[in-house]
Design goal:
Length: 340
Amino acid sequence: MDNLYLDDYDNLSEKDACESEENGSIHFFTVDTKYKGVRLDSALSELMDLSRAQVQKWIKQQLILCEGQIEKSPSRKLKGGEKLEVNQPPLLPAIPEPDPSVPLDIIYEDSDILVLNKGRGQIVHPGAGVWSGTLVNGLLAHCHDLSGIGGVERPGIVHRLDKDTSGLIVITKNDSAHLNLSTQFANRLVTKYYEALVYGVPKLKCGLIEQPIARHPVSRQCMAVRANGRPSKTEYRTVEAFADKYAHLSIHLFTGRTHQIRVHMSWLGHPLVGDLLYKPKSNPWGLQGQALHCYYLSFAHPRTGQKMEFRAPAPQIMQNILEDLRTKYPDYNTSLAPFG
């Protein structure tokens, strides 16, 4: 364990890195000198993919030891060579309560699957301190036969959309359907098309972005294009260009990384309008949250194998913004037809 990098944790053997216990798990690390001067909470949050607040909470609960002694200071500056021990408490997920007041825009439903048009601002499943008002809470009130593979917090969930991304999402009602669709997603057999409104107009009317994505090294809420990231592939077409100010894009998502479209378009120099995380800039419409909508979803039915295709219109606020732009820029250019 000597001279190990903290970010080499995933490469350690299970025996060396983590001794499982019935009531949680214990993680052991030896700090490399490359972390000299780095705060303890910052280093552990990067390593364990946790927020600094979570690490600080564990320190307050006396769950983190340095050199065999309980560590009391989150801001402790590391020197290199320290032996760290993290006593991670067990996860105790809350069981979501059914909530019939949660709106569900159901596009299709049978005994195996349910396809919804998720609204802007709607969270898919409980977590991160949000245990009510989610799509899952509404689904539990609507049907009682969701797949259990996703666990108590994510019954029936095989993929998700960000809170402020609207559009089509498929839910599974049994484990067989869940396994089948999970395999389709893993093998890139599910087709998803999005529409987005971005700042500026891409130089190329169409393009393919293949840039790896990983967690941002500093801002843990964000993802970023990084050399050590996971392979990610996004294709876009410019459907409408409004002078050099804005563009209406159609986007084909080949991989499904967290925030992929938002990260790739920001990397290209054309962040999404309303995206306060990757472009903290006001917009004329006061849009809070990215202008992004999944308008097309296609997959093979998990029981019959039949090709299933679904479409859903963009939320009214996106339609209103596009109409406003068409009025404001009457000489706007129409370029390529959208995907699908």
